[in-house]
Amino acid sequence: MIEDLRALLGERLSTAADVRERHGRDVSHHPPAPPDAVAFPETTEEVQAILRICARHATPVVPYGAGTSLEGQVTAPHGGLCIDLGRMRRILALHEQDMDAVVQPGTTRAQLDARARESGLFFAVDPGADATLGGMASTRASGTNAVRYGTMRDNVLALEVVLADGSAIRTGGRARKSSAGYDLTRLFVGAEGTLGVITELTLRLHPLPEAVSAAVCPFDDLAGAVGTAAAVLRAGIDVARIELLDETMVEAVRRYSGIDHPVAPTLFLEFHGSASVVAACARATEAIALAHGGRSFRWADDPGERETLWRARHDAYWAALALRPGAHGHTTDVCVPISALVPCILETRRDLESLPLIAPLVGHVGDGNFHLILLFDPASATERDLVRSIVERLVARALRHGGTCSGEHGIGVGKREFLLAEHGTAVESMRAIKRALDPTNRMNPGKVFLA
Predict the structure, then answer these.
(1) Rg (the chain; Cα; Å)
(2) Residue 364: closest CA among 200, 147, 170
(3) Fold adopted by 211-318
(4) Any residues with CB less than 8 A from the CB of 350 and at least 6 apart, and which?
(5) Which of 218, 219, 206 is nearest to 145 (CA)?
(6) Which CATH number describes the domain made up of 320-409?
(7) What letter does residue 26 receive in the DSSP assignment?
(8) How far apart are alpha carbons 380 and 308 in whole angstroms?
(9) CA dist 183 to 98, 166, 188, 254, 436, Å?
(10) pLDDT in tens, 144-158
(11) pTM of the model as a whole
(12) Where are the beta strands (DSSP E) in 220-297?
């Protein structure tokens, strides 16, 4: 296999130990597992040729974007070939009137957003990390803007995908809706590379809003902050972002990012629209917050001030790690219906209060999604077991409330057993699709499904 790939790619195939190690890990706590080699294709045709070679040699294939996944999606527990799509980073077309773009999978979120803004548009899905768009589609990524603009599921119009045998398919076109056949686009969005390799994406863009205003509001307690988020949504207020930080997370961000903010449960909010609509939404939200124990609103209309505010929010993971130097961070997420958000978060906090671990909570509460960052000593079996039990109870709690085991991190290797708990016999239908498209189980094996 190595000889065949070397003939195809030359120096763009690497078996160097440092390259393999780097491609066998993501930013999560999951143990690294390096591939046997790493390929760096530049075209769809090269990806097709690579997969044909791997098919002949019965070699496992692991697609790789930027390595920012959180459930071990890019590790190679069965060895094989990692396909690094980072050189496929061209923006192939940007259609201003239709508000869409066609990109290669290695294009990053920030790269597309910067190009779109030149045309008065923007790309709305913002997971925090500057992930590749192919990786974001593969994990069905989300982020702070999802409450208004949706997730990757809602913003991918079509895909080009290379299947396990090297054949390439297109899953749709640029029309904003279609009722023609099975929705293959959404089948591959969230498949985590287990069904094929994404080599092109057609993505929805949005017009830049006329006005943007952000606010930060501390609360007397966590219940007031979460209750405000739920009340704002029930009131039909057009809010673009509602982010929650508990007091532990606020303290971490204060230390790490240097923001001047009281240590208290806090909502970060943002409003998009016309100047009059933004002002009206902001006033209505402030009234709801004050009625739920909000202390005061701090407004940020200046773009620089807003950028500082949201940079602090996006630094949350690294800020949390700094609370316990040397610790690993087990980052996990669940998502529940909005009506269940208050009880689920408060039950989770009560569960954590009696435990000897630091566990900041942060959430995209506008769509019912929240995260825990569990800081633990990787050398301590006791702490590893404790983290596992916390996650098990968290997922069970979310499912009991009608939610899901993962709102945006995906399944990877970390939540395979929970997929079965959530979907039951429907998992066998998922397996049947996997067998149909990848009968020898070579596409990112060991992910999504338990063996």
Answers:
(1) 22
(2) 147
(3) Alpha-Beta Plaits (3.30.70)
(4) none
(5) 206
(6) 3.30.70.2740
(7) -
(8) 37
(9) 21, 21, 9, 45, 16
(10) 999 999 999 999 999
(11) 0.94
(12) 241-245, 266-273
